[in-house]
């Protein structure tokens, strides 16, 4: 039965509330289904170019390459990066996601600090690259927290080290006056749409899925952020924009780009 059919027949949705979960919005219910081999984000075309670029940046400042991932999750990028010979440490709030990574080959060898990547500190020598992929900067729902994230990245980097972010360009061009919702996924077992609060740059993603034959509704808050705003956050943290592309393969960033990969270097 599809999501729409279940709702039409009076089944309604089970609303999942993650507010009191110590793992935040990425607890066991999300972690159990996060790794999806059929998703494009787990394919080689998405993973390999990201790993290649991050590995190159990690080695660029000279000395020992060390990478720090904010929001390491289940190790989608960290594990292949470590297999490339780059030591990786992660920061993540979700123990459930990290446990999934540690159960994978090589996952137990990656150090992880459990905490908020806007403030959690990692002891030891500095890192040559810090990175934050797949819109994870938007998980910080205030501008102050996003600024703190940049400062935290800079504090962990060696001079000349780089901070890399992959994030979507706010989709407001698809939002006509009077409308606040933009769909991003529609099929018989999953409905997904974002709602925007333009005045505060608030964004909430709504997911309606069928899990084991039962419809489940979950919503997660985010804060969207503009490329120029990120550049200013970097300047406040003592970093400057070095490169910006529309993707991991170095595609030119244009007015029509839907996302960007940006690199800031520590002064």
Enumerate the spans where pLDDT stays under 50 for 5 or more consecutive residues: 1-14
Q: Please, what is the average pLDDT?
A: 90
N-C termini distance: 56 Å
**Helix/strand class:** alpha/beta
Number of strands: 12
Fraction of residues in H or I helices: 25-40%
Q: Taking strands numbered 1, 2, ... along the chain, how are they ordered across the largest sheet?
A: 4-3-2-5-6-12-11
Sheet with most strands:
7 strands, mixed
Shape: globular
Strand proportion, as a percent range, falls in 25-35%
Using the CA coordinates, give the radius of gyration.
19 Å
Q: Helical element count?
A: 7
Report the order of strands and helices: HEHHEHEHEEHEEEEEHEE
List the helices and strands and how they pair.
Blueprint: H1 3-8, E1 14-15, H2 28-34, H3 44-59, E2 67-70, H4 78-83, E3 88-92, H5 95-102, E4 111-114, E5 127-132, H6 143-156, E6 157-168, E7 181-187, E8 190-197, E9 202-211, E10 214-223, H7 227-236, E11 239-245, E12 259-266
Parallel strand pairs: 1-10, 2-3, 2-5, 3-4, 5-6
Antiparallel strand pairs: 6-12, 7-8, 8-9, 9-10, 11-12
């Amino acid at each position: 039965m599809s999501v729409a059919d279940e709702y039409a027949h009076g089944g309604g949705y089970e609303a999942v509330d993650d507010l009191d979960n110590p793992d935040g919005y990425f607890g066991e219910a999300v972690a159990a289904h996060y790794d999806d081999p059929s998703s494009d984000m787990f394919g080689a075309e998405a993973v390999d170019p990201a790993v290649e670029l991050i590995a190159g940046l990690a080695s660029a400042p000279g000395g020992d390459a060390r990478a720090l991932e904010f929001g390491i999750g289940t190790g989608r990028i960290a594990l292949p990066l470590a297999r490339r010979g780059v030591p990786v440490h992660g920061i993540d709030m979700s123990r459930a996601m990290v446990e999934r990574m540690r159960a994978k080959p090589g996952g137990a060898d990656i150090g992880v600090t459990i905490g908020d990547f806007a403030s959690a500190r990692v002891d030891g020598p500095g890192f040559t690259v810090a990175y934050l992929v797949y819109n994870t900067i938007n998980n910080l729902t205030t501008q102050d927290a996003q600024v703190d994230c940049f400062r935290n990245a800079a504090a962990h980097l060696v001079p000349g080290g780089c901070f890399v972010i992959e994030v979507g360009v706010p989709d407001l061009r698809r939002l006509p006056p009077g409308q606040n919702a933009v769909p991003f996924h529609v099929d018989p077992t999953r409905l997904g749409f974002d709602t925007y609060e333009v005045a505060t740059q608030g964004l909430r993603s709504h997911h309606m899925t069928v899990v084991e034959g039962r419809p489940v509704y979950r919503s997660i808050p985010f804060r969207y952020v503009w490329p120029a705003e990120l550049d200013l956050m970097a300047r406040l943290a003592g970093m400057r924009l070095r490169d910006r592309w529309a993707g991991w393969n170095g595609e030119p960033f244009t007015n029509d780009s839907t996302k960007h990969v940006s690199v800031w270097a520590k002064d």
